[in-house]
Amino acid sequence: MSTKTETASAAPPRRIPSPRGDKEILKVNIYDRMQSGNTQLLPLFPYFGEGAVVPCGAILRGEPGADWGHFFHWNTVDEVVVVYGGRGGLLQTGQIFATQKLHGVNSFLKDPTDAGSFLVLTITQHQSVGAPQQEAVIFRCGKCTETLLRFEYDAPPLPPPAERGPDADPHPAFTTIVRSWEAAAAYNADEARRTCQQCGTVNPPFPLERWAWGTYAAHSRTVNAARRALDEAAGALTSGD
Description:
single chain; 6 helices; alpha+beta
């Protein structure tokens, strides 16, 4: 009995460590955030550095004639999905699960044309520490599943602000969204790429507008340009020009 007590008391306490002080503590309500979201996979916080936990929101709703398409995503880091509410989906409210490194992505609605079906969820990835981080967007033939395009890219954690250099964006975009947009745009632009070499099927373009990645990319360019314009104006006032 004495040995067990001593062993138990020697065990280190299990607790979440205190904030390190290099990030402002932020709080977000997923429902409020996604009400005004402009893209699927919207980052809820602006932290993409080494070891950061990056929760991203998605909001999906069925409508008559809707087509969300289908693609595959490969990631070297872990992703965890939490469903914050849904009806008529393949995922259930309150469901939590970790994805495979290679996983399929679509609307996750049983019937995407049903206006009464919806999902609100987060996909959270844990940025790597001291190791490479890569991702890929993959499009496959809808008839025989042959790979039509594998768009690979590096997605390293963002360096600390002091290490980014003077030309870096003051409000960096989330790499996964921008590169997914580039992958889908490249896929859509070339019918030959969408033509399966295995079975000859000409696959339709991916419905990129439904995912709104291009909107996020455009807004990212605009807000960074606006911030630079404001800094320039402030600098002119300070210098008296």
